[in-house]
Structures are given as structure tokens and as C-alpha cells.
Amino acid sequence: MRNLSSSPAFRPVIYTIEHVSTVPLHQWHAFVLAVTETFWQLPVRLRPGNTYLPSLNRAADLFPVADVMAFCGDTGENAWLTNMTIGRQRNCNTLSIQELDFQHQPCDFFARIVMVLLHNLCPDSFRIHSSDEGRSWALPLRWIEQHLGLSEQLKLTPPQPVLKTPVSDGAFDSLLLQLLSGGERVLSNDDWNAFTKAEFQLYELKRVAEKTDAL
């Protein structure tokens, strides 16, 4: 995917996760259920792998031991291994900060959904930041609202502020979300690259629309 790095849409994005306190057990259970549901509702190509499998076949494989979620990105020759590990317990004697760069691999969208879920379901246990700010969270937040039913139980918020000005009454958002919905949907690498470019351009259009509305 490095041959696409000249496009602004493929510039590096660094996610930072700081684990600040142990997650209460009831919050962790809600998080595990939401991640499991996410796994089955995303297209197979967007599911992450682990150190043994390039793409996991079971949601249970995301949780290799009790109270720990772990997965990684692609391990192909054009990518380096990026591991994301989230545990319920916080070791007070260890500084727990992860910096992650998924290099715009397909599992990046899954990882962003996971981070939005952490922010909302384990609200006092993690601090989450993206170098791309709100662009990283706008569509994952919409995806969660559409597919997981959590918005009926709590008010979902992004880890960082997002632009909310609609473009074409939200038609483009809906089209992109449809592309990333359904475990039966077949996606290629080209489809994913096209989505990455479109997501970037859509957020730029929202930025322009917001400035226009402010005039």
C-alpha cells in the first residue's frame, strides 16, 4: 500500500491509547459483546488477524485469554506487524500507552470502531487520540449507531470532536457505510483503497460546508 502514500488520504495516522484505570467488569462485558457483534457485521476483508492467522474466522479469537483483547494488521511483505492489545486490568506500576499505525490496512476501520467502543463503553478507563483528529471517528461512529443499537442505550460520542455538517443530506455517508456493512459482502483491496480516498474527500467536503455555513 506504500505506492499510494503520495495521496493525502494515505498519509500516516497515529492512534494513541492510554489505559488509565481498570475497567469495571460490567463495562468490559458490554465492550466484549459490542466487539463480537462488530466482528460479524463487518465484511470479512476488514476483519483483523493475529500472529498466526492473517484474518480471523471467529470473534472468540480476538480474546486469547480472559480479560484481554488482541489483534494485529496484515503481515504481508509491504506491511509491518501492528499489534493492538487491550486488557481490562490496569497495572498501576506500568505506564500503559500504545501508539498504533495500521498503515491504512483494511483492519484499520475495525480498529477505529474498537476505539470508539472503548471511549463510550469504558469511558473512565481509556484516553484515545488520533493524529487525524475527527476524520478518524466520524464514519466509525455512524457505523456503530446504525449496526449495534447502542445509541438506544447511551449517547455515543467520538474520542475527539467531528464535523457534523451533512453533505448531500448524508447520502455519501450512507453509501460508504453500505460498502462496509455485512459479513457476506465481498471487498477487494482496490475497494478498500477507494473507500479510504472517498472517506478523506468526504470529510474535506464537510470542512468546506462547515466554513460556508459559518459565513
What does this structure look like?
The chain is of the alpha+beta class. It is built from five helices and five strands, in the order E-H-E-E-E-H-E-H-H-H. It has helices spanning 25-41, 107-121, 138-147, 171-179, 189-214; strands spanning 15-19, 68-72, 83-87, 97-100, 126-130. It has a three-stranded antiparallel β-sheet with strand order 4-1-5, with helices on one face. A two-stranded antiparallel sheet has the order 2-3. It is globular, with a radius of gyration of 17 Å. The protein starts with 14 loop residues before the first strand and ends with a helix. The mean pLDDT is 88.
What are the key terms here?
215 residues, alpha+beta, 3-stranded antiparallel beta sheet, two-stranded antiparallel ribbon, 5 helices, 11% strand
Overall form: globular
**What share of residues are in beta strands?**
5-15%
CA-atom Rg in angstroms: 17 Å
Average pLDDT, to the nearest integer?
Answer: 88
Helical run tally? 5
Instruction: Note the main sheet.
Output: 3 strands, antiparallel
What is the rounded distance between the termini?
A: 39 Å
Gist of the model:
This protein is α+β, with helices and mostly antiparallel strands.
Topology:
Layout: E1 15-19, H1 25-41, E2 68-72, E3 83-87, E4 97-100, H2 107-121, E5 126-130, H3 138-147, H4 171-179, H5 189-214
Antiparallel strand pairs: 1-4, 1-5, 2-3
Helix pairs in contact: 1-2, 2-3, 4-5
